[in-house]
Amino acid sequence: MADGRVARGARTRLAVLDTAVALSSVYGLDAMSLARLADETGISKSGLFTHWPDKEILQLAIVEHAVRQWTDEIVTPALAMPRGVRRLWALHEDRLAYYTSRALPGGCFFVASRAEFDDRPGPVRDALTTAIDTWWDFLQRSAEQAVELGELRPDTDAAQLAFEIDALGEGAVTSARLHSLEQGAVFARRAVLDRLRALSPTPHLLPGE
Question: Which of 33, 36, 24 is nearest to 56 (CA)?
């Protein structure tokens, strides 16, 4: 019986965090509170309080859950690709596929939340910064591996390329606020594909249009 309660509690916690990440992608992380989640999920505020005693603890849990989703939906599938330009491309392609799947109604949790906390020091900003920096670092390492494998030119600036890929992925989401997410994804896909082809001595490893 105890194991059953623990399992139900874990499922409830994940369901609440799924809801919280989705809502944060629309309204921002600062809008999340136990009262709002109680209204959205039908779970009592006191029940939620047993998991997250205050708003900051809740926000940190939401960031952690968003990182887990990002890893599951974007990073892990890309790791199935060979190191080099194909993996680097897969990271961008999987990101755009995640956005256009409408898994999150606001498009991207991190795009919505980073603007709220970029000038608000504290644990939540630190957690967001760590998550975003980890993503950038992974993009850069993937680009560096592609250089080492001879799949990108030796003079490729991996840090610059990682910044451009990330910015174009973010641009697909921000443009969707007033325009079509699908069209933004098409432009972001084409821009990165053209950039990688121009830098790669092995463009046949990349997909066609």
Answer: 33
